[in-house]
Amino acid sequence: MSLDICLSFVVTFIISLILVPAIAKISKRLGIIAQTNNRTIHKGIIARTGGYAIYVSFLVGTMIFLKTDTQINSILIGGFIIFITGFYDDIHDLSPRLKLLGQIIAALVVIFYGGISLKGFTLPFLPSSVSYFTAICITILWIVGITNAVNLIDGLDGLCSGISIIVLVTISLTSLTYGRTDISSLSLLLAGAVGGFLVYNFHPASIFLGDCGALFLGFMIAVVSLLGFGYKSSSFFTLGAPIVVLMVPIMDTLIAIIRRKVHHKSFSEADKGHLHHKLMFSLELGQTKSVLILYGATILFSLCSYIYIYDKIVATILFFIIMLFFEVFVEATSMIDRKYKPILTIMNIFIKSEYLPSIKDTKPYKRIAQRAKKKYAIVFAVIVAILFSLVFMMNKEDVPKKSKTQTVTYQEAKKETKLMSDIYNQMGIAIERNNQESLRQLVSAYFVADYYTLSNKEKDEIGGVDYFYSEKKDDFTVYAKSGYYKEANSYIENKTNHQVVVDYKIISNGTSHKALAELEDYSYYDVQIELIFESDNEIFNAREHVVTVTLIEKDQRLSVVALEE
After folding, report:
1. Residue 399 domain-assigned?
2. CATH value at residue 436
3. How confident is the model at residue 234 (pLDDT cuts 50, 70, 90)?
4. Measured distance CA(437)–CA(525) in Å, rounded
5. 26-36 as b/e, with b when 16 or more CB fall inside 10 Å?
6. Is the pLDDT at 340 greater than 60, yes or no?
7. Cα 221 from chain centroid (whole Å)
8. Which pLDDT band, with edges at 50, 70 and 90, does 378 fall under?
9. One domain for residues 101 and 125
10. What is the average per-residue pLDDT within 114-118?
11. Is the same domain home to 327 and 346?
């Protein structure tokens, strides 16, 4: 993890730490406080605009550390809409319908302006337009659902903010694994802002998140998770990983929906049947212990998603074990209903405990129980075998299927620098959006960043060669060895190969008047780039260097054919 990403966390943490007390005082003076009722557990006058401090700290951090693009801008715009919706609700109490409308509008902004949605989703035997529409609907449901799920767990001091930090750090680590340093930085910026707030929000809390904070955190986590997980992985993992990490708020929300449906209550009607309530009241653990247990559960689920990257079998087994314990807890505390205890009832067939629910003591039920003892082992073995088969099938290496409309792919360097990784990820977005003008800039930038960076090179290795036109690679190699790479081996052997491109600026990007023999039917483009090195480049005796890259394009494939220094 780079120093800048770590520093972003520290900076927003400090800003939030300073802002929260000031915001709390202003809120109390304005009367924006948490009202007490029959389901609240706090005492005293407590401000409920902690989300304001988080939002401001986060914005300051983004201005300092983040380079924005269309995706990031869409997230910031959507986040603003959610924040204003929640902030207005904290002051004037919005109706559930208006809050939902604000969430849908924010979701539509990131989907259609930012191009952020569930990727790789296809429905067999149906037109691609149907799959696209379905993916958009799922994305809206995901964003709105997670936004409200995170808001629902804001019931104990430090619970929502602490879980949010764990989830954001997990997203950041996973993003780094897949080369999304922008998403990693965005996640840690927000985690730092929440961390500064948590200092005052942990039990006994002196300030609450409010809807402006809880809804904002839920929205940001929902959107960022779509980008931060599985950017270079399968579509299953893209949606599966965030579901696993957010399992605590997701399950709490689903159980609340089922519970209220069973008892014929409205979903908007609050109760004390949530996970944190059961831990605090049914098990009499108190606020601090209840919160720490839910922190632990979130960490375990986060570990599952992170381990999945390296060992899918272990991660899947761990997930099923945790879910089994989770189900037992739900049944033991009657979170859904007193009669809902299927796992405990099955367990009692073998345990025979008077404290567990049992099958009725009649001859028919006894015969069923006796047969079940013999057959349950076989059934269990079959279920385990099916699960393992699904895991193996699901975890096969994804092989791109060739088709007439196969997306153009570009070679990724073995040892990417941070800049190269960022450029490569942006190339994927440009390809996805069919933005050829942007792609020309990015291909050129990746080529020169690889070519002029020697810090990651081995002896006789030449950067950018995979982006050069295949039939001209030999000529390019000769050119490189007689020019920039003439003394490269000596730099590498003496370990003085510190030349690394850390940034670039596009000066121009337009049609070229050049044409190579036997390649006249290609389209030609010139991209002029100013390279910025980490320090003075010993070969140029300068920190900046301007080059012109000439590209050819045919069938949407771009290749470098010339380099002017």
Report:
1. no
2. 3.10.450.50
3. very low
4. 10
5. ebeeeebbbee
6. yes
7. 7
8. low
9. yes
10. 83
11. no
Read off the DSSP letter of residue 548.
E
How many Å apart are CA 288 and CA 432, to the nearest integer?
46
* Average pLDDT over all residues of the chain: 82
Domain presence at residue 476: yes
Residues 307 and 357 in one domain: no
Measuring CA to CA, which residue among 423, 397, 428, 430 is closest to residue 503? 423
The residue from 394, 409, 436 where one domain ends is: 394
SS3 331: helix
- The maximal CA–CA distance of the chain, rounded, in angstroms, is 94
What is the rounded distance in angstroms from the CA atom of residue 457 to the CA atom of residue 180?
A: 22
CA nearest 183: which of 335, 305, 69, 315? 69
Alpha carbon of 565 to those of 103, 433, 504: distances in Å?
A: 51, 31, 15
SS3 114: coil
pLDDT in tens, 146-168: 999 898 888 788 899 999 999 99
Closest CA to 227 of 101, 332, 292, 143: 143
List of residues 6+ apart from 536 with CB closer than 8 A? 542, 543
Of 285, 301, 147, 144, residue with least CA distance to 203: 285
Predicted pLDDT at 380? 59
Does 23 lie in the same domain as 72?
Answer: yes
Asked if residue 221 and residue 110 are part of one domain, the reply reads: yes
User: SS3 string of 7-24?
Assistant: HHHHHHHHHHHHHHHHHH
Q: What is the DSSP string of 162-230?
A: HHHHHHHHHHHHHHHHTT-HHHHHHHHHHHHHHHHHHHHHSSSPSB--HHHHHHHHHHHHHHHHHHHS-
The count of structural domains within the chain is: 3
Please state the rounded mean pLDDT for residues 16-38: 83
Q: How far apart are the first and last CA of the chain?
A: 33
Residues β-bridged to residue 553: 523, 558
DSSP H or E run through 471: none
Please list, in sequence order, all residues whose beta carbon lies within 8 angstroms of the beta carbon of residue 138, skipping any fewer than 6 positions away. 118, 121, 239
Residue at 404 is within a domain:
no
Same domain, 385 and 431: no
Indicate if 164 and 199 belong to the same structural domain: yes
For residue range 184-224, list pLDDT tens digits in order: 889 999 999 999 999 998 888 889 888 999 999 999 999 98
Q: How far apart are CA 559 and CA 563, in angstroms?
A: 12
Q: Rounded to whole angstroms, how far apart are CA atoms 436 and 445?
A: 14
Residue where a domain stops, chosen among 296, 312, 332:
332
- The answer for residues whose C-beta is within 8 angstroms of residue 61's C-beta and 6 or more apart is 8, 11, 12, 15, 189, 192, 193
For 412-458, give the secondary structure using H, E and C.
CCCCCCHHHHHHHHHHHHHHHCCCHHHHHHHHHHHHHHHHHCCCCCC
Hey, how many other C-beta atoms are within 10 angstroms of the C-beta on 420? Answer: 22
Is the previous residue joined to 364 through a cis bond, with omega within 30 degrees of 0? no
Whole-number Cα distances in Å, 115 to 20, 139, 433, 557: 34, 11, 8, 22
Q: Which domain holds residue 489?
A: 418-564
Give a yes or no: residue 123 inside a domain: yes
Same domain, 17 and 65: yes
Alpha-carbon torsion (530, 533, 536, 538), positive or negative: negative
